[in-house]
Design a protein that fits this description.
Order of helices and strands: HHHEEHEEE
Largest sheet: 5 strands, antiparallel
Number of strands: 5
Distance between the termini: 52 Å
Radius of gyration: 17 Å
Shape: globular
Strand content: over 45%
């Protein structure tokens, strides 16, 4: 009797969908390798990301986003989109904003999708508007949403830079 319950429990565990990032990058594809390094870095620098990787339906990883700001600012990055642990496509990120801001920085960012509906909305490529405030100095800086907001959570970890901001702007993923 116990043996059957163990087998049922193992099958249920193995069948549960989650975005645990067990994908293996193609070693000949530099962008895929960079995405895996970004995943590893975010897991290391932002331990709270473990729950998101375990529970998310999917995620987009941007291995390198660069922001420049002097009153007006912008950011650009590119990466990959995953449904569960399957690579389903590429993504690009653009952001334009204005406010009290000055500096430049580069960071890794992961956008987690709580469910299929959130991932499908992401695929529609619509402009979003958001306010943000923060500071990054050298390689110190990890920020993001404390929980899912409309099915999406974001975690970003600074790679290098110096920037301070209090801004509002539009962002778009394709």
């Amino acid at each position: 009797m116990n043996r059957r319950w163990i087998i049922v429990a193992l099958c249920a565990f193995m069948a549960s969908p989650s975005a645990i990032a067990q994908w293996q990058p193609d070693p000949d594809d530099k962008k895929q390798v960079a995405s895996q390094k970004a995943i590893d870095r975010i897991k290391e620098k932002a331990p709270r990301s473990a729950d998101y990787f375990a529970d998310a339906y999917g995620f987009a990883v941007l291995s390198s986003v660069t922001r420049v700001a002097v009153g007006f600012g912008g950011a650009y990055g590119s990466g990959h989109v995953f449904e569960g642990d399957q690579l389903i496509g590429k993504t690009k990120f653009w952001q334009f904003n204005s406010g009290i801001q000055l500096g430049v920085n580069n960071f890794n960012m992961i956008v987690f999708f709580k469910d299929k509906e959130a991932l499908e909305y992401f695929k529609k490529k619509e402009w979003q508007f958001a306010g943000q405030a923060g500071i990054a100095v050298a390689t110190f800086g990890a920020h993001g949403t404390p929980s899912y907001n409309e099915g999406v959570a974001i975690i970003a970890v600074t790679r290098l830079g110096l920037i301070g901001e209090f801004s509002y702007g539009g962002l778009k993923f394709t």
